[in-house]
Write a structure and sequence with these properties.
459 residues; alpha+beta; eight-stranded mixed beta sheet; seven-stranded mixed beta sheet; 22 strands
């Protein structure tokens, strides 16, 4: 049985930055990264819009798994803020969290992002405009790499790491056990290729590993608590409608509290001149968005998510299952993602291919025209409609009839794993980082958590 100093489970942002920092601070350590998906160059989604128009449920989703994690084909936005993206600061302190995010940004710039731009909400006039219309613009600096440059950064980081760290791809971890029945003896990691042991283990499995993470916590008796789930739609509009915001801020995180229920609705993952895409989480097809730094790959549209937060109290505990059940309804009705014109939704009728074709917004994703009111709970749909009208006041045209709504978009949050200030579980030497911990919800926070734990290990 092989033995390592450190095994990292998951090659998403948290795992990559943990591996990077270990290789820099303690190159003598024997480190391995086990990843369920493919190497970066083999990550190819078969959906081309022509021969393959919808998800075919690949063995491992190329969008969600593989080197770079679910963030590999995202639009590469690294938000440097404690206002959103996770609660890492609650464990390590606000100043330390920001310092780590800036450090992550320096590395991204060094490995290919040097020509990209850093945006900031500091001093912007839009903060006042939002407040005047019952909206709140959250503070952040954001480095936008774009899907294309993000890929280059990941390529360069893999080149840096491949001779210093052992990578095992298509290597799903079946079990984590205490070697010898106690943490002092390290950990036994079982895969289809057999079992190996390590002194310390870093788990960084992302949101798509939520069910697996729950099983691990149950088997090792690690306490968890229910987290939230965010449910909503992805909005697609002509880019000019939001250009006054996106040209200055790029990513604007705007929060609204509904009048009817006082639910919190927020914009998320804004993609100026971008495309809408499918993604597969645990066999369920949902929607997301990408954007590119390369102007030749840009479109005439901007897309962003509108998400309603849902927190649950006793006795219900499985917030992810709730989100999945809603996504399954969409898949049942449309065979995948549904799309509806805002005007059709307000008039209480399903959209048709003809009405969408005659509209002024050309969809960037081939989705089934349908009726989102048959999928989304009324309370959530009412909140989304209120938010569209609120945004129309700061970006007139958002509530146009031809605005497209794709559904559903679900952001799953892992059960929050009980961790100490070292991001360590009750078992010494077993760390949980990134979005798989329920602590982080973003590229920057996940990456920072990887650096933090690597420094904890190297002292």
């Amino acid at each position: 049985m092989g033995r390592y100093d450190v095994i990292i489970i998951g090659a998403g942002p948290g795992g990559i930055f943990a591996a990077y920092e270990l290789s820099q601070k303690a190159p003598e350590l024997k480190v391995a990264v086990f990843e369920a998906g493919n190497p970066l160059e083999k990550r190819r989604c078969p959906i081309d819009g022509k021969k393959v128009k919808s998800c075919i449920n690949c063995k491992t989703c190329a969008i969600m798994s593989g080197f770079g994690g679910a963030g590999a084909f995202s639009d590469g936005k690294y938000n440097i803020t404690n206002d959103f993206g996770g609660t890492l600061y609650e464990y390590i302190g606000k100043e330390a969290a920001l310092d780590l995010m800036h450090y992550v940004d320096e590395i991204n710039v060094r490995y290919g992002g040097e020509e990209t731009k850093m945006y900031s909400t500091a001093g912007t006039k839009f903060k006042k405009l939002c407040m005047q219309n019952k909206l709140k613009l959250l503070d952040a600096s954001v480095r936008h790499l774009g899907t294309d440059i993000n890929y280059v950064v990941l390529e360069n980081m893999f080149k840096e790491l491949k001779d210093k760290v052992e990578f095992r791809f298509n290597c799903h971890v079946d079990k984590i056990e205490l070697a010898g029945g106690r943490a002092e003896d390290g950990y036994k990691i079982t895969t289809k290729d057999g079992a190996v042991e390590c002194d310390k283990c870093i788990v960084s499995v992302g949101r798509s590993g939520s069910k697996w993470m729950e099983e691990v916590c149950e088997s090792l008796d690690i306490p968890t608590k229910s987290n939230r789930v965010d449910i909503g739609v992805r909005v697609e509009i002509p880019a000019v409608i939001f250009s006054h915001l996106t040209d200055e801020l790029y990513e604007s995180k705007i929060v609204y509290r509904t009048e009817k229920f006082e639910d919190k609705v927020r914009t998320f993952c804004m993609n100026p001149y971008g495309i809408v895409v499918n993604e597969n989480t645990n066999g369920i097809v949902t929607v997301n968005g990408h954007s590119y730094e390369d102007k030749e790959k840009q479109t005439e549209n901007t897309n962003f998510a509108l998400l309603v937060e849902k927190h649950f109290s006793e006795p219900f505990k499985d917030s992810n299952e709730y989100g999945e059940s809603i996504a399954r309804l969409s898949n049942m009705l449309g065979g995948g993602v549904l799309v509806q014109r805002f005007g059709d939704l307000i008039r209480g009728r399903r959209s048709t291919a003809k009405r969408i074709e005659e509209g002024f917004v050309r969809p960037t994703l081939s989705a089934e025209p349908g009726d989102l009111s048959l999928v989304l709970p009324k309370r959530i749909l009412d909140g989304i409609i209120e938010m569209v009208y609120a945004l129309d006041k700061i970006a007139p045209g958002t509530a146009n009839d031809d605005t497209l709504l794709y559904g559903v978009e679900v952001k799953f949050y892992n059960m929050e794993v009980k961790l100490d200030e070292h991001l360590e579980t009750k078992h010494k030497g077993l760390y949980v980082i990134g979005d798989g911990s329920g602590v982080t919800h973003s590229l920057s926070h996940a990456s920072a958590s990887g650096v933090y734990v690597a420094r904890e290990i190297t002292g």
